[in-house]
Specification:
α2 crosses α6 and α4 runs antiparallel to α6. The protein has a single domain, classed as BirA Bifunctional Protein, domain 2, CATH 3.30.930. β3 and β4 form a beta hairpin. The protein has a 6-stranded antiparallel sheet with strand order 1-2-3-4-6-5. It contains 6 helices and 6 strands, in the order ααββββααβαβα. It has 224 residues and is α+β, with helices and mostly antiparallel strands.
């Protein structure tokens, strides 16, 4: 299935789901969810993955994955049963969803519009490794240069969370202090041009930015 754009009426599904938020409504509209969001999103990720595969050789890209719409409410005060957005991506190698580096991650919905690459959060074992490699005088400068180059191209490179101080045992004035504080590393693509998600050209737009972000994702996958 080739990506031809999300249906122009598709965003209405999320606003209606947000207002209803019950199983009866969702069951009645489940096929609509599949047709308007899951199927075109799967096609989008498939198209992008195929075009990015040569960029990441010899590393293989995993099969695109789309997150479940059902929320895990076991430990949440918010008991809303459904997410009001769809998210998914293309992971590098055999990385599992939620734990690994992505060539592309995207989500769309109510107040949600994001496309980027990298690794959202480093698990504890990878966090320790990240800090060790970043601090290394031979290996660390490479990722610092990648980040600097992306920022020169006006990409936002950031972490979901960062420490206020450089973690011990690293010096507070370490040349890569900002990176040492980070608990993840993500490059955000520019805001999606208005109306582009409804057009086939959206896939090419994502791929162009994913190619620019590839050095960051490749470095993370190689070192973590």
């Amino acid at each position: 299935m080739t990506f031809t754009g999300f249906p122009k009426q598709a965003m209405g599904f999320w606003h209606e789901l947000e207002a209803e938020m019950n199983k009866t409504w969702f069951d009645a509209n489940k096929q609509r969810y599949q047709t308007e969001w899951v199927e075109p999103f799967a096609a989008l990720l498939d198209d992008c993955a195929a075009k990015l595969a040569p960029v990441y050789k010899p590393t293989k890209l995993g099969a695109p994955k789309i997150m479940r719409i059902y929320r895990d409410v076991r430990f949440s005060k918010d008991k809303s049963p459904y997410k009001t957005w769809i998210g998914g991506g293309v992971w590098l190698g055999d990385g599992k969803r939620g734990d690994g580096t992505v060539a592309i991650y995207a989500h769309f919905g109510v107040g949600e519009d994001f496309v980027g690459a990298g690794q959202y959060v480093f698990p504890d074992d990878k966090l320790a490794k990240w800090r060790k490699v970043v601090a290394d005088p031979k290996k660390g400068p490479a990722i610092a240069k990648i980040v600097a180059d992306l920022r020169k191209k006006k990409y936002e490179v950031h972490a979901y969370d960062a420490l206020a101080r450089v973690p011990k045992p690293y010096d507070a004035d370490h040349p890569r202090a900002e990176l040492l504080k980070m608990k993840g590393l993500v490059v955000s693509f520019p805001d999606t041009p208005r109306g582009l998600i409804f057009k086939p050209a959206f896939a090419s737009w994502i791929v162009s930015h994913a190619k620019a972000a590839a050095p960051l994702s490749k470095w993370l996958h190689a070192h973590l």
